[in-house]
Amino acid sequence: MTSLTTDQAPLEAVLKDEIIRMYQEVADKPEGTFHFYHGREAAELFGYAPEWLDRAPSGAVASFAGVGNPHHRSNLQPGETVLDLGSGAGLDALIAGWQVGPAGRVIGVDLNPAMCVKAQAHASTTGMRMECRQGPMENIPLPDASVDVLISNGVINLSFRKRRVIEEIFRVLRQGGRISITDIVSAKQLSQSIVNDPKLWAS
Q1: Most exposed: 65, 96, 167, 186, by fewest CB within 10 Å?
Q2: pLDDT (tens digit, 9 = 90+) per residue, 80-89?
Q3: Which of 129, 128, 166, 138 lies closest to 150, judged by CA?
Q4: How far apart are CA 10 and CA 156, in angstroms?
């Protein structure tokens, strides 16, 4: 998907609105019913260490809506700079911050500015400094070659322009940088009815 067709452009705008709405609802009302795993149940299912979940603010855990565990293979080291692409309420960013330590740096990027505020608030309650920038993953608001490791959890599948997202990821990574991504991949071509349904894209 190197470019959007005339028909896709308005659909992409609708999709972004639906993504913001849906994941804002998960953050604001995590006790609600959703058609995907979320909260501590999901985090435990994906192998998040219980001590991480106990240590993190309850709001960050309750609002978790990932699809896997990027920390299994991230191999984060003290002092590294980490980008959490699609940081949401901040659980993955917090875990990354504990691993890179005070000499490291964690930057979140999220499409929804309210989620950035929420993630930074969660980080502040733990004494960890986390920076979050509002922006699209197709145009990551960071300079070239500025991060050592990129983590992402169930976000890239939401983009209409995945090739552009990958180009941006490699742009912001330093030479020798690493990527640890968990996401949803379809093994077959999706029907047009699915492609044209923002609710299915957003979930």
Answers
A1: 186
A2: 999 999 999 9
A3: 166
A4: 19
